[in-house]
Amino acid sequence: MAPSDTPGSPGTPNGPGGRWSDLERPPLVATALRRALVRPGGLWTELDVVLATGSTNTDLVARATAGAPEGVVLIAEEQTAGRGRLDRAWTAPPRSGLFFSVLLRPGAAGVPAERWGWLPLLAGVATAGALSRTAGVDTALKWPNDLLVTVDGQERKFGGILAERTGDAVVVGVGLNVSLRAEELPVPTAGSLALAGAAHTDRDPLLRAVLRSIEEWYGEWRRFEGDPGPCGLQETYAAGCATLGRRVRAELPGGGERVGEAVAVDGDGRLVLATEGGVQEPVSAGDIVHLRPAS
């Protein structure tokens, strides 16, 4: 893996596959990002940009296992084996999106392990808020880990979050479609910030805004020992969650499903469904299918 601020493979800087082969999609510059984000006393301690890798999450999990400190950020211009939940593939052209992972060690700040499940939801809140402000596009959250925008009047997934625990560390990966054109979408129902009418698709300020937002939310969450109530995380997530108020189908791991109205996200980050018969049932994991628009 070669840092993107150092010319190298694949291709020559101006040749096919090179750093400047698509002038509408300039490369990220690691040195500039480090100057802006890595500072004494801040969360982010190391930041690297690579031209291509299989998966930033896989790479950072390995570094976490080897003892890397909290606050490492790994960004890839292209992922050749990017993964979403349930090991689903995540593909996009080089430099068309933001693909990065961060290494967190919440236990060192006294956050109980049973609250670590809030980290992907925290990353969703932080990312959606930062993009709404910076790109000027309304974004919404789909429980548990998708980010949505509206394209041609339809909700489209344009981003996802994947959290993986290794020992006392949690690696949180974020993948976002930024400048993808319609013909480049992996599936017709996907979206991108560009297709949603973003004010701009310059990835540098977008990335800075997202990482600063994650740092702010994570700091508050740690300050309250991971309690999502007093730090405002639970309320903010619910306010931005497009799943709440809708009739949904929860497709559960290992088979089986539940159908009901999504009425709340509880203190453990679970989606609470009001099923037929008036029973409220929490769902801790699964694929959620929206069956009707929010009321």
Automatic annotation (TrEMBL):
Which parts of the sequence belong to the BPL/LPL catalytic domain?
36-222
User: Which parts of this chain are annotated as the region Disordered?
Assistant: 1-24
Source organism per entry reads Streptomyces cuspidosporus
Q: Does the keyword Ligase apply?
A: yes
- Keyword terms of this UniProt record: Biotin, Ligase
Q: What is this protein called?
A: biotin--[biotin carboxyl-carrier protein] ligase
One GO MF term = ligase activity
Checking Pfam families in the record gives: BPL_C (PF02237), BPL_LplA_LipB (PF03099)
Entry EC number(s):
6.3.4.15
Superkingdom, taxonomy of origin = Bacteria
